[in-house]
Design a protein that fits this description.
Layout lengths: L1 H35 L1 H5 L14 H9 L9 H18 L10 E9 L1 H6 L2 H15 L4 E4 L14 E8 L1 H15 L20 E5 L19 E7 L4 H11 L6 H12 L2
Antiparallel strand pairs: 1-3, 1-5, 2-3, 4-5
Helix pairs in contact: 4-8
Amino acid sequence: MSEDKKDKPKHGKGDADKGGQKAEHKGEGQKGDAQKHPQHGTGAGKKDRKPKGGTTEAQAQEEDTGPQVPAPTPRLLVHYREKVIPALQEKLGVKNVMAIPRLEKIVISMGVGKLATEGEKGKIEQAEKELGVIAGQKCVRCKARKSVANFKVREGQETGLKVTLRGGRMYEFLDRLITLAIPRVRDFRGLSPDGFDKSGNYNFGFGEQTVFPEVNSAEVTFQQGMNITMVTTADDADKGRELLKQFGFPFREEKDKDAKEKGKTGK
C-alpha cells in the first residue's frame, strides 16, 4: 500500500507537467493567431484604418473655409450694362435693349507654321504655354487641312494655336488688353479704325508677346506675334466701331489718317 501511495503523486505530477506544456502551446498558438489576424485579437475593423493617401492641406483648408465666395462681376461688364448700353441707345436711336450691339467672343491666335516646318517642337510648346498664360485658358492646336508644297506644309501638321474667350474671362482679358497691354506697345499711335469687316468684327495684332505683363520677358527666347479678333453682334462696321469706342479702344483719329494720306501723295 505504501508503494502505491508513493507512485500516485509521481503520475499526477507528470500529468500536470504535460497539461502545463499543452496549455503553453495552446497559448502560444492563440497569440500567433492574434498576430496573424489582428482584427479578431484587438477588435480593430476597417473603420479604424486610416486612408492610404491621408488628408492633404488643401482638403483641410477647404473644410475649414467652407463654401467659396463667387468671383466678382468683371469691371467692363458692369461698365457695359450701366454706361455703354444707354450711350448706344441714344447715339444709334435704338429703343430695344436686346438690339444693342454687344461683344460675343474674343479669339486669340498664333501662327507657328514656320516653327513646325523647322522642327522646333520646343518653341511651339513654349508659345503654347505663353498663350495660355496670356489668355488664362488652355489653347487649342490647329492642324493644316491640306498640304502646300510652296510653304513646306503637310496635311495634319500643327501650324497654329488659338484660344476662344467668352463670358467673364472675355471681359477680364479685354480689361487687361486696354489698360495694360496696349499702352506697353512701342511707338503706339493708335489702333487702325479700318480693321473692321462688313459684320462689325475687328481684327488687329501684336508683333510680340511681351506687351502682356503676364509673360516674363527674361524667359522669352524668341518673339512671337499674335492676332486678336473681336467678334460682335453689330450689323455693320460703324456700329462695331462705336461699340469698341465706348469700351475705350484707342483708335486713330480721322485727322491723323488724312495727314498720313496727304504725306503719301505729297500734296
